[in-house]
Structures are given as structure tokens and as C-alpha cells.
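Data deposition worksheet. Section B asks for the primary sequence of the deposited chain exactly as it was used as input, without tags or linkers unless they were present during the calculation. Section C holds the resulting structure in C-alpha cell form. Section D is free text for depositor observations; keep each observation to a single sentence. Incomplete worksheets are returned to the depositor.
Section A, Depositor: J.P.
Section B:
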Amino acid sequence: MSNLHIILIIIVVFSLILDYLSFNSKKTSIQLVNDMGIGYNLGNTYNCCNIIEGKNSEYEEIKLYGAIFPTKNKLKEIRKNGFKTIRFQILYNNNNFIKGKINSVLIYKIKELINLIIKLDMYLILSIKHEKQFWFSEGMKAKDKYINFWNQVANELINYNEHLVFESMYEIGYLIYLDRYNNYYEDKDFYLYQDFINIIRDSGGLNIERLLIIDMINSDYDLNLLNFDYIEYKVPKDPYNRLAISVYYYFPFEDFNSLNVFEPINFYDSYGYYEIIYPLMKWGLSQDYKNIISNFEYMKKNFVDKGFPVIIGEVGILNDYIKKNNSIEQLLYTLFSMSYEYDGILPCLWDIPMVSSNNKNFYFNKENNEWSNDKHQKIFNAISKGKFIKTFDYYYQTNLESEDIPYYGYFSIYSGQKRIIKIFINARFYKHLDNYYVMTVYSSAKDHSYLDFNLKEKDGKRQYDGTTIFTIDGSKQGLYYYAQASAWFGEENMIINNLTVQYEEEYLYFDYISYQSDILKEINS
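Section C:
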């Protein structure tokens, strides 16, 4: 063997050792996800079906859903604009498989993509898409194909370092249908997460400590939040404790995030029940901010605090002309800022135009490397550099909490275990109703007994601005848990402006108004 051959072997071995040492950098799963920054979806690349759609070329396969396979320059542009992680999804029940083996062209393309991404110091999340119809038509054979897929991927990509992350699959719906059609699927082992982990770990090499992502049911945040106990969601066992949880965040779906945006307004009349539908065009009320903070706290408490980072695999807003730009910018800025600010939460922007939209609703157009909106580009750049309005800076100690957004005609504040000292309601009357009960305030005692207070207009104190303040002294009542104010008689002649509760002890409260004000100032500067 020549000296040149020996030198080349030493270089190769040394480079493999460096890769291994880099992989075993002793980062926890949460620290690794923090380093992944913010993510960008390449979308439904290789995620259609040639046979059904009649497409005959690889190029048509990629382009069918408005996606594009990135070149080095396009990835550079995505990286330059603040995104450090790429999420890449493929469908595994079409021509990506030939006689049970992964299409060699697909493997070549995946390796090409990983090499480009690692050279740019980026991360790649490789995921496969589940299709309910496929699982039901294939029965238990689908499980074998799933296992076969990950066996091949694990062995083909075994030598890539921690910049490659595997996601078990996404938009999985079979567990719900398993409950509904229990007689059809008797094998509980159809729940494949443990198989996925075992396959990757048993393949050895750099797969031993690779970060693996386990998806919640349907990748749906809302569904899992509401049915967490029912579905008995359990994180599978991993001997190396290198797992993350994946959800989508189009929440709530009927709100501003979805394509067909509708807000139901329910009412009754003498003819019965009606539901009027109005499109929701804006985001940014204090309740919107409360919801998003509550949801992030839920992810932190239930997963991150237990050592499991959260990958928000898809997040975004339909970027089209019917939405208010200001609202789009508020939600983007708030959601990505919070994801970046909270330890162990990574958001991945969904930016693939709908087929029917003529490619007009993108953020970053990968065909010509141009952004549709300079403000959106500025938002992602600023967040990736840590230059954003931080949520945690707007918490302060107080014993007052106010609510100014009504829920179908009433205001409500939930106090939990805090004792309520006083309740204040501000209302405006358009006709004097002194002799009638105009409002009822509800609460409860610590023993959960129900309490209500009926108020007349004359029970309040008239203010200089023409409004009336009602005060309920609960210091001797032992009020706990909640306060609710509802208009009663003559509600067409009055409006409740807000409800404020004073508590016995101070607690941490969030200043939504100042937070929103500074966000608007930042995105409009």
C-alpha cells in the first residue's frame, strides 16, 4: 500500500471520528432543538402519486403540489433569511417504492439534499407522510411497508451526524380509527412509534443517538389538547432519551390560520336555532394573545419540562389578499418569537402555495428567490438573530385581572385557587332601567357552592365618562374559581365594557396591551 493510500485512509478515518465526536457533543434534546433555530418546510416534494395523477417524470412529481427541489443557491437564500432547519416530507405509498425498495433516485436526492444542508450548517428533518386510505386499503401490510421503509433509510443514512433528524411520520390518523373500528384492527402493535425507535437504534452507527421525532395524532395540536387523556397518548421508550414531540399549529382551525376562515355566531329565536357564518379577517385581540400564550405554556408543561422538545412541524397563515396584512404580521411575529424564546420549541413555516392559488400565496418564492412581502422577510431575519419583543418581559406582579372581550354576551375570568376580594364591572347604559335587574354576576365559594348577585342600574356608581361602575365585595363571601358578568334585562339598552377581579394575593400577570403595542411598533418600523 502506497503512502498516498495510507494518508487518504487516515484522512477518511479522522473525518469519521470528527463526525462522531460532533454527533456526541453531549447536547440534550432540548439544547439540540434550540440550536436548530427556526424551520422552513420544503413542502410536498415527492408527495404525490404518479399513478393516480398520470405524471410521468420526476420533475412533474415534485412540482404537482407547487413544491420545488432546492438548489444550493436556493438553500443559501433560505438560510440567509434566518431559517436554520429544513423539513422535507415524502409520501411512501407511491412510485417512491419499487417492489418494496426505495426508489434509487429518491435516495440519491435525499443524500444530495443532506450534503447541501450540512455544508450550510443547517439541519434536515426527514419525514414521511401517512395516508389514512393507504393504511385501510393495505391493512396490516402497511405496517410491514412502514418498517421496511425505515430499515432502508436507517442503513442508507447511517453515517450522517446530528444535523439529520428523523420524524416517524406525520398526519397519522389510524389510532383514532382504531378506536372506532376496533374489530377491524385487533393488533394494538399497529401503534408503530416503538417499532420506529427500535429500528433506528438497532441499526447502530450514528443512528444510536440521532434525534427522533414522534408525532401526535393527526399532528393536530387542538385534537390532542382536547383528547389527551382519552387517547392515552404515551411517549414510547428510548434507551438514549433522544426524542421530540411533533404537532402542527393551525390553531384554532376555524380561526385566522385556515384557508376557509369562518367564525360561527349562534343564536336562538322563536323559530329555533341558527348559525350565521362570517369570515374572520383579523388576528390580534387580547384573547388571541392569551390563547397563544396558554398553548405554549401547555406544550412547555406537558413536554418540554419533561425533557421532550416540541417540533411544530407546520405553522403559518394563508398569505393572501383576503387577510389583513397587519394581522398576518402580528401572528407570524408573535408565534415565531415565542417559539424562539421558549426553550425546546421549534416552528417550521409552511410555505407551499395551494395548487388552485396560482402560486400567489407564498412567503418566499423558490422559483425566483423573492419574498412576497418585505415585512415578512424582516420578521424572520429579526427573530433568527434574537431581535424581537420578548414575551417574558411583559409579566408583572399584580392582584388585578381584567377581561374586555365578551364571550357571546358575557364576560368571564377564571381565577383558579386565588381568592376573589372584589369584582368590578364597567357598563354603559343607553336607556335608564333603574327599577329592573339589568345584570347578574356569578361566582362560587371554595366548597363549589354557586353564588349569584343580581344588579340594577342604580346599584352602580356613575362615572364622569358616562359609564357606570358596579362593585361586588366578596371579601366576606369567600369567592373562588371564577367571576362571570352577564347582561340580563334590557341588554339591548346597555353594553358591558369590561370585567375586573381583585385577588387576595399578588400573582404573575401578562400585560397584553403593552405587548401588542410594542409588537405593532416593531413590525411597522
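Section D:
Residues 394-523 form a domain with the Jelly Rolls fold (CATH 2.60.120).
The chain has 16 helices and 22 strands.
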